[in-house]
Amino acid sequence: MNIGRIKTTREESLSDDRFTIFSFLWAAAVIFHLGKWNIWLHSPVSFALGVSAVSVILKPSSAYRFYILIILQLIDAFEKMPWISNHWLFASVVNLTILVSALVLIISARNTGIDRSRLFNTFAPALRLELVLLYFFSLFHKLNTGWLDPAASCGTRIFLSSFNHPGFLQSPLVSETLPIYGTLAVECMIPLFLLTGRLRIAGIIIALFFHFMLGMFEYYNFSAVTYAMLFLFTPDNTPERLLELWNGSRIRELYKYSIDTGLIAKVKAPVLIVTGAACLALLIYTKLNYPSVQPFIDPIEVWTLRKPRLYYVFLALWGLYGSALITVFLFTLRKGKPLRYGTSRYFIPVYKILMLFPLIIAINGGSPYLGLKTQTAWSMFSNLRTEGGSTNHLIIRHPYYLADFQNDLVEIKYSTDPRLSAFHEKGYLIPYFELRRYMSMNVRPESDENKLEYVRKGSDKKVSKPGDDPALFEPENYFLRKLLSFRPVPSGNSGVCQH
User: Fold this and answer.
1) What is residue 451's three-state secondary structure?
2) 452 φ, ψ to 5°?
């Protein structure tokens, strides 16, 4: 069976293969993810993922390369779970949706072959629904007193950290009202407009500019994933519009001239050698200067972290990439044939098994209110609090705990471990689940140098060796460790912005 059957010319792939364009955008999102924190150096899988993403960008029409990319992304995400970001977990659900779509088509095709356009039309409805649900929870989680409080709101904190200048940018209207209520308005409009056929184009435009700004605020890894997903909402004949733009552009003429004169063939080898040498130099430099640290829920603000120099290179690339995509999309709106949308099953996949993945998105988004994880629950920078049996949410006033993870909080009184001591110094509580994870993973059984004093459920505990508190050093169930992660909890009602 030929599950990777592809068209061979650029014109064909642009005119009738939306899969090719999505493949390119998805690979670019992987590159931006890997580049922000030098993630491509974290493991051999991450490095292979970067190589795979580059190979897809060089030939986005290759279905085989795309399959390898999404499989490597899933391996990379599972390897790092639960310490992955919201957008990377979301990308994992998207990739699972695509893989299951391919498997369903393989089973149903009965050796008749699967072309890329059929695969795209199979997974696209489920992916559209997943993005709408992501927007819904991102908005819903922000409906809390913390987000609306200018002194604590993540909207205000992120804005001021990005525009730390005197003048009108720090006036209450600009630094408080706009980030808080402007964000709520935009995150409400985008999913509503995407759901409405006549407003869909407007929704895409608003989302493109909104996520471009988020990217310039340093969150370009999340924005790149969103840009790829937004392509799923573009008109069906967008590739034809792109082809019209390409055929009428001077870039195409220059490209054709370079091929005809043999210029590309002459410079291809030197460019590959120089690029390879530069990548190797970056690999050595970053590996020596930015050693990896065992992940933990340190009570810090993300924007205070030291950023690698390569981060700023990718920030500049995001500015070019994002503005180019916005420009190209706006040009497609004014060129050529009328825009055309398909009318059938836009959000409902043909194969009902694919509805499992939007359901996973919804369950993950609801997990803070169910007493489950509070990290990577689509609640990024939302100021949401659900721990300790109450919430600061304006609608869900009392959580419905299915487990006791969020009630079982620990106060660190003293620790010789500087990462644990930081919780005491900054006034944070820590879920016992996370304390147990940290102690079981980082303290050697034979060590007697790690002194810890903490309060749990009203009882004082003193630990200097594993025998003093055996349960604290026993690892949790493997799957729970992979699936669950919790934020540190500010003591009292102090407003704190956390990821």
Assistant:
1) coil
2) -145, 130
CA distance 116 to 102: 10
Q: How do strand 409-415 and strand 459-463 relate by DSSP bridges? A: unpaired
At residue 81, what is the residue type? M
The pair phi, psi for residue 235, each rounded to 5°, is -55, 155
Query: b vs e for 461-475, b when ≥16 Cβ sit within 10 Å of the residue's Cβ?
Result: eebeebeebeebbee
Alpha carbon distance 190, 132 (integer Å): 8
Pairwise CA distance, residues 36 & 493, whole Å: 33
448: helix, strand or coil: coil
What's the 3-state SS for 401-427? Answer: CCCCCCCCEEEEEEECCHHHHHHHHHC
- pLDDT value, residue 70: 97
Angle 272-275-280 from CA coordinates, rounded to 5°: 120
Query: What does the alpha-carbon distance between residue 60 and residue 7 come to, in Å, rounded to a whole number?
Result: 11
pLDDT band per the 50, 70, 90 thresholds, residue 499: low
Q: Count of CB atoms within 10 A of residue 458's CB?
A: 5
| Claim: this prediction has a pTM higher than 0.85 | yes
Predicted confidence band of residue 494 (pLDDT cuts 50, 70, 90):
low
What single-letter DSSP state applies at residue 475? Answer: P
CA-CA distance, 78 to 267, in Å (whole number)?
39
User: Which has the closest alpha carbon to 221: 210, 230, 232, 211?
Assistant: 211
How wide is the angle at C-alpha 324 spanned by C-alphas 319 and 328, nearest 5°? 155
Nearest by Cα to 311 from 213, 380, 222, 218: 218
- pLDDT score, position 14: 40
Task: Measure the N-to-C terminal CA separation of the chain; round to a whole number of Å.
Answer: 45
Domain ranges of the chain: 10-360, 409-483
Token pair, residue 302, equals 């993300």
